Amino acid sequence: MAEEGQYIYCVIGTGEARNFGPMGIGDRGDPVTTISYRDLSAVVSSVPMTKYVVSKETMLAHEKVIETVMKDDTVLPVRFYTIAPTAEEVRSLLRKRYPEFKKMLRELDNKVELGLKVIWRDMNAVFEGIMEESPDIKAVRAKVLAHSAGEAGQDKATLSEIVKLALEDKKAKERETLLRPLRRLSSDFCLNRTYGDDMIMNAAFLVDRIREREFDSRVEQLTSERGDTLEFKYVGPAPPYSFVNIVVTE
């Protein structure tokens, strides 16, 4: 029989014994419970010490547990696939990092993460607008159109670079316009990596639950005002993955 370890999902601010049901990672239906030190607990389930294959299913199982726990508790997510060999190792982790975890729980108390991606709907219109707004781009474009295909190589490269810089500048201005009203309603925010020319913003906001409905309304207002040219992808509430991800080192 394989040696068993303790898979750690998150840390919560309670010393009470809890059982969240048979939803542990893997396909064995292991109960998700708590291991405590004073008024802190790690949410855990038993797993074989042999390594699981990292897959979409295991990641979703990890997230499902944390999302279940956050319904009633402030959570400090632990990095995916963190396993301690024994329950005593888990208690040792809580003991050693007790002040740090308590501080983080105070800072995140009653807060959730809300995510917002914003994408231009029509990139042709965006590029045409950039061309019209910039005299430099219009001049280089005119030179490209005036030359034969063989003669326009350098001008095309110059045009491509100027347009790229202009696009990034336009993104930055759009992003600031969108962020301004949302920052006021959040405790913190972070900008994540964007993908492709059409994505303006990929942001996560840490929002107090008492302001969540107000934040929702502001996103709805932005969607109503700008939805003809921008696509808004709004998700949450979620655990504060973008603001805390506990890493356990040996």
Keywords:
250 residues, alpha+beta, 2 domains, 42% helix, elongated
Description of the structure:
With 250 residues, this protein is an alpha+beta fold. It folds into 2 domains: 4-109; 113-238. It contains 7 helices and 9 strands, in the order E-E-E-E-H-E-H-H-E-H-H-H-E-E-H-E. The strands form 2 sheets. A 5-stranded antiparallel sheet has the order 2-3-4-1-5, with helices on both faces. The longest helix has 31 residues, at 153-183.
Write the layout of secondary structure elements.
Layout: E1 4-12, E2 19-21, E3 32-37, E4 40-48, H1 56-69, E5 75-84, H2 87-96, H3 98-108, E6 111-120, H4 123-133, H5 135-146, H6 153-183, E7 188-191, E8 199-208, H7 212-226, E9 230-238
Antiparallel strand pairs: 1-4, 1-5, 2-3, 3-4, 6-8, 6-9, 7-8
Helix pairs in contact: 4-5, 4-6, 5-6
